[in-house]
Amino acid sequence: MDADSECEDPGVSFRERGVEPADGFTGDGFVVRPLVPSDAVLDHEAVMASREFLYHWEQDPPYPPPDFSVEDNLEDLVQMDDEHRGGTRYTYTVMNAEESQVLGCIYLLPGDDRMYRSAEVMSHDGTDLSSVDATVWFWVRPSTWEAGFERILLDAVLGWLRDVWSFGRAAIMTNEHLDHQIATIESLGLTRRFDVDRERDMYKSHAYA
What DSSP designation does 209 have? Predict the structure, then answer.
């Protein structure tokens, strides 16, 4: 998720809610930890290797552009690091066990984050998106799909959100174009709770819990 340039009222931050960032965790063959600016080179390589997928995942064409540089990526990572340290949004990198390759990324945003402020939100269960403890976006390299890594990671993340963050209700986010990610989310028993429609996006987003 590239740095969001919207300058609206950010709403109630995680820190204002008393939610501090977890350190991360180690899974079977992978590590999840906070994304920091020094990850710019490895993160850039993963972004460019996943460019065709991220074009639809980000919904911010033409991100990432063909000439997206390490320096461009560093600017995004600096902003995300500032938000992480400031307690407004939390961002985590997913790396292999040796931390020599980025496999994906995880983003935690409050349910009333600025990106949802101007959106049309349809609830399927009668509740409000702002009532969820967090909205969680994630992506992994498409090259890892065949081995089932997307599902392995999401399953581990769900346990992490429950056991470490103590979130009673976190919404896993995707969009209507991402059939593979939708299938992964639904395979873990999650149900579509909200549709989020922003005028600037190419596709409607879905929230699962």
Answer: -
